[in-house]
Amino acid sequence: MNHQKILTKLNVSIFLIWLFHVSGIIGIIYTDASWFIGATPINLLLSFFLLLINTKLNKNAFFMILTCFTVGMLAEILGVYYGTIFGHYNYGSVLGFKFMDVPLLIGINWCILIFITGSIAQFFTNSFWYKIILGVGLMLTLDLVIEPIAPILDYWTFDEGVASLHNYIGWALVALPLQIAFHICKIQIEGAYPLNLYILQFLFFTILLIKINSIGI
User: Fold this and answer.
1) 109, 193 Cβ separation under 8 angstroms
2) pTM of the entire predicted model
């Protein structure tokens, strides 16, 4: 067996995100939930770092990273202060250091989501607009399973208690130009890392959503 073919950058990256996400699910459900929830920033930063090392880093890629972070942060700041984009909500303490009441990790998360959904869309279609529509759709699908559990994990809480249609429209409006920019810049990410990370995030929040009420975090 050729160990060099197994221990590639891509394979190690995929193994690590599976290890961290599965450990997080098991830890939150069966052990010290507060410790594993508190480790969310580590998981996000690891996912982002591994995304970077599996991305072809050039001027376009750096432009997209900066754009996604900046646009994401600005949209969230406007959301928190004025409720104009996503509705009225506030962030908890789990996601770490905040700038103008928005965790910096949220800007990084916007980078992750645009990059992985845009990359997945590239795999399924060559049509420019189909890729954009699919990318936005994948983001909204993930948000649907995140929103119900976010307050329980102390990520963020809406004043109304639940995310309204306003939130999902806001997500689509912010994601749309970023998806367009992603495909104009022709960002290239190696192999199946984006698909694995998307599946893991979807499974993570879906499993917790199913189990959370019965274990009482």
Assistant:
1) no
2) 0.92
**Of 23 and 138, the one with more pLDDT:** 138
**Taking residues 68-77, what's their average pLDDT?**
95
Q: At what angle do helices 59-82 and 165-185 cross, to 10 degrees?
A: 170
pLDDT digits 0-9 by tens, 18-65: 998 898 888 887 777 777 777 888 999 999 999 999 999 999 999 999
What angle (nearest 5°) sits at the alpha carbon of residue 199, between those of residues 80 and 184? 70
> In angstroms, rounded to a whole number, what is the distance separating the alpha carbons of residues 14 and 19?
9
Q: What one-character-per-residue DSSP string does 176-213 give?
A: HHHHHHHHHHT--B-TTHHHHHHHHHHHHHHHHHHHHH
Nearest to 194 by CA among 125, 91, 120: 120
Where are the chain's structural domains? 3-204
Residue type at 2 in one-letter notation: N
Map residue 159 onto helix, strand or coil. Answer: coil
